[in-house]
Write a structure and sequence with these properties.
- This protein is an alpha/beta fold.
- The chain has two domains: 4-117 and 292-308, Nucleotidyltransferase, domain 5, CATH 3.30.420.40; 127-287, ATPase, nucleotide binding domain (Nucleotidyltransferase, domain 5, 2-Layer Sandwich).
- The chain contains nine helices and twelve strands.
- It has helices spanning 39-57, 94-102, 111-122, 181-185, 187-200, 209-217, 221-245, 261-272, 294-308, and strands spanning 4-10, 14-21, 26-34, 62-69, 73-74, 79-80, 106-110, 131-136, 140-146, 149-150, 249-253, 285-287.
- The mean pLDDT is 95.
- The protein binds zinc ion (ZN).
Length: 312
Amino acid sequence: MSNCVLAFDFGGTKLAAGLVETKQGAVLCHYQEPTPRGGADASLAIMLAWGQRLLAESPQAVVGAGVNFGGPVDSRRGIILESHHVAGWNNRPLAQELEEKLHLPIAVDNDANGQALAEWRYGVGSGTRSFIFINLGTGLGGGIIIDGHLWHGAHGLAGEFGHFPLHPDGPLCSCGRRGCFEALCAGPALQRRLEEALTHERSPVRLTLAELWTAAEAGVPIAKRVAGAIFEDLAHGLAIIQLSFDPELIALGGGAARYTASQLHDIQQRARSYVLPVVSPYLHIAHATLGAESGLLGAAAIFLNQARDGHA
Ligand SMILES: [Zn+2]
């Protein structure tokens, strides 16, 4: 018989909680609201009320709860290190606080690891043993699964792909350095690169970021040039990841990764040209496949993995 996990998704812009059936990864019911002003206490009060309601309504046994948190987390101790968006989270023992109120084992991790685990368990990475997920949104981060286990690194800092230094003289990054992968390929970088090209070439063509990939595919010259330069930088970043981890698959998700199927293939071919010939045939990239439910599925997958490893 299948069972359920209580799933909590704490984001900077929205909160969500739901019940996830663990075998199929089906979200049975869920609540969602914009993240309230009022800091960590206000968010936690809403989540606890939802959690208690979901536990009372659950049609199946609830084995534990997972938390997918939008910020750095000490997952071993279940402590939130900080939130860039919401005040009051610094060094908060979230796992302990939830456990005392809900009387369930609790597992906590950050959202990049949550998305990686969700795609690995329920999405495009299912069936693989070694899998990398990259989120290209406002920033660029990811999660690493090696031999069926999430790799946190010795200090919980693994997967910071966004700050690979690709071009020492490149554009300024959010971290204060220059030419990081994030400063070249995440959402704000794409916007900047498109605007710079339009201005520099005094282009009569008006083009928004949302139109960039389809315009490039349709052969609009300026869109092709901008997309080609971005794909080249992406290929360098992906080559480093493939050479470092030798995964079966690298999945790309997030709003800045909506390339067409043929563009995805183009990026893969470029990346293959930057790795050793012996590595090249094993470099595979794909789009992430989970949609709006990935946050809750990530929370459930965080619990299931920590429970399996004896940490929840
Ligand atoms: Zn950086």
